[in-house]
Amino acid sequence: MATHPRPQTLAIIGFGNFGQFLAKTFVRQGHRVIGQSRSDYSTVAKELGAEYFNTADEVLDQNPEVVILCTSITSLKTVMTKFPLQRLENSVVVDVCSVKEYPRDLMLEMLPPSADILCTHPMFGPESGKHSWKNLPFVYDVVRVSNEERQKLVEDFILIWKLEECSMVPMSCKEHDSFAASTQFITHTTGRMLAGLNLTSTPVDTKGYESLLSVIDTTIKDSFDLYYGLYRYNYNSKSQIQRLEDSLRDLRIKLEEEERKERDQ
Q1: Are strands 32-36 and 51-52 parallel, antiparallel or unpaired?
Q2: In this structure, are residues 11 and 67 in contact, taking their beta carbons and an 8 Å threshold?
Q3: Which residues fall within 8 angstroms of residue 164, CB to CB, at 6 or more apart?
Q4: Which of 145, 174, 193, 207 registers the highest number of CB atoms within 10 A of its CB?
Q5: d(CA 104, CA 87)
Q6: What is the rounded CA–CA span in Å between residue 243 and residue 109?
């Protein structure tokens, strides 16, 4: 188990399921972890070896080196609007949302100009990363860093993921969302479409069909709120929905054309 050579004080704003998942590894590496959320997770935090405060001001009084916004995509703006953002001057602020351009634009608009911004997407969660983060993708984009000292803080935060042997993927927010619309969003859409057909295992399942059932199982474990966030806040997702509809229409047209040809013979 890796220990961080330069432990940090990390504040996790949004101490729900995913925040607790991150906290467990952060604590194990030797970091001081401080949680804050709408609900009271003080007991859970204590069990994880973390600290918990009820208000954002109390968290910031602890002088965290890095503030991690660990909220859903759909609630990020609301959380930031209610947060004492002026107190984030000269701070490193990180997001972990599944889309990247939207939180980047929001942080550039709302945070003080002296706040540094690191956009990240750990492409795994409590299920897939339950036993290890090794080889799991961690996408990140260093959007803004003010000086050399805070550059080191950002690099030390990124080191957390390197120590866990994640697959490190430096990538711009724009490029991430372009890829994600064609991979993550299409996968979720396909899984939810198939789930609506109420497909089940049969005695004659093929390997391909088993793979489809696996896609359904994986996607429906995630909340609809997450799926809606992928649709609403990835600027590329609506065009992907249209491409899916066009592709299904074209496929049906081809099938009907073949059927007509057969009848006319």
Answers
A1: parallel
A2: yes
A3: 2, 25, 132, 133, 134
A4: 145
A5: 19
A6: 32
Q: How confident is the model at residue 80 (pLDDT cuts 50, 70, 90)?
A: very high
pTM: 0.87
Q: Is residue 69 within 8 Å of 93, Cβ to Cβ?
A: yes
Cα gap 46→9, rounded to integer Å: 16
Does pLDDT of 111 surpass 80? yes
Looking at the chain, list the stretches that DSSP marks H as alpha helix, in order from N- to C-terminal side: 17-28, 42-48, 56-60, 76-82, 101-110, 148-163, 173-182, 184-195, 207-220, 224-233, 237-264
* Mean pLDDT score, 171-188: 92
Measured N-to-C along each axis, helices 173-182 and 101-110 cross at an angle, to the nearest 10 degrees, of 150
Mean pLDDT of the chain: 94
pLDDT at 50 over 80: yes
The CA distance from 21 to 197, in Å, is 33
Structure token digits, residue 3: 């220990």
Q: How far apart are CA 111 and CA 77, in angstroms?
A: 12
